[in-house]
Amino acid sequence: MLSRRHFLQGSAAAFAAGPAFALSPRPVGAATSLTLTAGAMPHRLPGCSADSLLWGYNSTWPLELRVQRGRPFEAVLKNALPDHTAIHWHGLRIPFEMDGVPYFTQAPVEPGQSFRYAFSPPDPGTFFFHPHCDTITQLGRGLAGVLVVEDPRDAGLFDHDQVLVLKDWRVRRDGSFEDFTTDAGAAKAGTFGSVRSVNGAAPPEIVVRPGARLRLRLVNIDLTRIPMLGLRGAAQAAIIATDGNACTPFPVDGWRLGPAMRADLGVVMPATEGAEVFLEDIWSTKPRLLAKLVTRGAALRRDGAQPALRLPEAELPVPDLKAATELDMALLAGHADPKMEAWAKANGVSIDELCLTRKVFWSINRQSWPGMGPGLKPDPLYELKAGRSYVIEIFNGTPHLHPMHLHGHTFRVVASTEEDVRPHWSDTVLVRPKERVKIAFVAGLPGDWMVHCHIIEHQETGMMGYIRVA
Fold it and tell me: Could you tell me the pTM of the whole model?
């Protein structure tokens, strides 16, 4: 087998005008069993003169699956890639054995092999799935999909339901990939892509009828970029779910969507034909378009008062803040561990084969873990008891942002030293430099659950650990 660094290379192009397409109401998801074949596929990215060889599932990018809350779901991963892989179901509270972390919850799925994932998703919302080994390369090439867990309680709230996947690509104008990581990027804010895309294309123009009610599900699967959302021109608009979980609606403008984070927007279009609504990344002085919504046709006529832009409440284990055990988590610079190199050399394997990197820049609680591999498992950051409440104060002692993700749990963001927090449910929280953020949760199913930064270069250069739930 070729090493992944020999086989994979990746970077740069422009942002062209996107296609127009009309939305139609989505049917309730009915998928209960399917095969997910991970393989290479040609795809023309914005501004490129030739196709790039992406990695995806079932020759579709991005693949979107819709399933029913609480119903048994089965997906058989077939690996048609030149490298081993697995599927992590990001944000889902499912059994540890299904979490999809090679060398940790399962053996890696080698080329030509298969693995069966089976679970009943307990929570509705917007989730996604991706590999959890050599993620920089595999996700850098696009290996990810979206999983929408439908909730019968949402029926009739929206006329249209649309997923918008945000991702940058490190491609040249001829479609070939540049290196997916650099030391300079990994040690700072990450190595940014030069081609931005929405659903693998330029920002779309979405055509709907005047007065339509839309649910826009934004999924940031980028390895690095953190957009700041802005929306203008709508009759009404609000963020109605964070990381797929219903929240008290709040304004769209200014919400930071870190890597792996999701935001569901409820939008009511103006009642006039030809109206335009702009969804943008407003972080820089010149906003970047993410999608344009346009009204065409006869206005939708509705009888009586319309329901508020609000989803039914999330049904999650509520932590007892008064009885919770308090823990500290410090995000800091890291240091190289010579034991990692010595172990690999003594066992006759290369670090490249073990989902490891040779550089260490980051740590959690002064413990660096730059990847997974047999025999290289450190001690857990904490040992928790299932069913008990915990509050973790995350301190960012670095000069860079870190979107911190906890596997297998949905936590409540309850406090920050930098802003007045709107308490909300999340599985990935963005922690700013010198900020202290408190998250609260009930320890869930038994297992060793990963916690890491979802700027993937930070994860793979040390900012990763795990908590043990017994």
Answer: 0.90
